[in-house]
Design brief:
Length: 395
């Protein structure tokens, strides 16, 4: 009798131990998401906006009980725009923290060093750098791009400058970061393929304080449009100031950072933001009725309630917010589709994703195409129509 009771207790204990060690316990383990974000430094404007979207989505998911019963733990690392820091943090997140996902780095120059490390570790990586080199289905099979490609940005800007504005004497301006260097090169190649030889090209240190010399050289070369490829809002603001102080009303068409609210604050005169256009998005453009797409407006309302007192203006580029928000929602979608956080299952889930509707875009990937953002989501915007981080379409 005693033996049978002891045996029964032992069996019950074994079952209980297995249950504790099994799925209910694992369900309580946090899903660790690394977030490589340049929250400080000269390239911080995009990261600060993206961070709002990332944080909001994580908070919403956790408030709703997590993903498959597991809360999301966000491990944010400020790279300060430094590629060396991005590499070190990528190693830390992948090998020490053993995260299940990494979002970022924000800037392409940082991604050039960090993406191979994450690929080696086998960690699924949502890429938000735009240059071509960050995506390779063979070398980086678990790297999936959420942002548009750099070529989509450049194509949008080129089409507007050459076809809408009918300009052909182009000055290409890049900065000396990895992104700026690569983008200026790509932009020049794409212009030449369209039959346009730039009349002036230059790379500028993003911390340079006075761009008068470069702008005077572009004018002397006969440029009828300036096309800058830099995410450094300080540099772009100083470029617009140099143009304005010269009294030169040449159109400026290029990177979406030209439209950032930070630039408005840097301008010597408000009118210096005129005749400026950036590559932008259907999702953050006002229609002819003056309204944003419904999903975008819903997110705007959430962000306003969180960030803005008294119902004031949202003063950050909203497409960055929307993309950060979508990144976390894509992670949720991948885990639910895969039924786990197993890296191979996540890879398969994302490769099988077709038409996943986010706020920033509608995404599709495959085993051979890791660029998820559609061409149809791109549009040129008018910079000085900034309202709540969104814009009118450039006609």
């Amino acid at each position: 009798m005693t033996f049978r009771l002891t045996k029964s207790i032992s069996a019950a204990s074994l079952v209980l131990s297995l249950l504790v060690a099994g799925s209910p316990a694992r369900a309580q383990d946090a899903i660790k998401v690394g977030w490589l974000s340049s929250l400080t430094g000269p390239l911080s404007s995009a990261a600060i906006a993206e961070n709002q979207g990332v944080q909001l989505a994580v908070d919403e998911i956790n408030a709703a009980g997590g993903i498959l019963g597991r809360k999301v733990e966000l491990l944010t690392r400020d790279t300060a725009g430094d590629p060396t820091k991005a590499v070190n943090f990528a190693q830390q997140l992948a090998f020490s923290e053993k995260v299940q996902f990494v979002i970022g780095p924000v800037n392409s120059g940082e991604g050039l060093g960090a993406t191979p490390i994450l690929a080696k570790a086998g960690v699924p990586n949502l890429v938000i750098g735009a240059i071509d080199e960050l995506i390779d289905p063979v070398k980086y099979p678990r790297a999936f791009r959420v942002i548009n490609t750099n070529r989509q940005w450049i194509t949008t800007a080129n089409d507007y400058a050459l076809k809408n504005l009918k300009k052909s004497k182009v000055a290409v301006i890049g900065d000396t970061t990895g992104y700026g260097t690569s983008s200026a090169k790509t932009a020049t190649e794409m212009l030449k393929a369209a039959g346009v030889e730039p009349v002036y090209s230059v790379l500028i240190d993003p911390n340079k304080t006075d761009l008068t010399d470069e702008m005077q050289k572009a004018k002397a070369a006969g440029a009828d449009v300036i096309m800058p490829w830099s995410a450094a809002t300080g540099l772009l603001g100083r470029m617009l100031n140099a143009r304005g102080d010269m009294g030169w009303d040449v159109p400026v068409v290029g990177h979406p950072a030209l439209m950032a609210a930070q630039i408005r604050k840097l301008l010597n005169k408000p009118e210096y933001w005129g005749n400026t256009f950036g590559s932008g998005y259907v999702s953050t453009s006002y229609g002819d009725d003056g309204k944003l797409p419904a999903q975008t407006q819903q997110l705007v309302d959430k962000v306003r309630a969180k960030l803005v007192t008294g119902g004031g203006e949202i003063d950050i580029l909203f497409w960055w917010v929307a993309m950060g928000y979508d990144c976390v929602k894509i992670i949720e979608h991948a885990i639910k589709t895969a039924g786990s956080t197993d890296p191979a299952a996540i890879q398969a889930a994302l490769e099988g994703t077709k038409g996943f509707k986010g706020v920033y875009g509608t995404y599709s990937w495959s085993a051979t195409n890791k660029n998820g953002f559609p061409d149809s989501g791109m549009v040129a915007n008018v910079a000085n129509t900034f309202r709540d981080g969104s814009f009118k379409v450039a006609r």
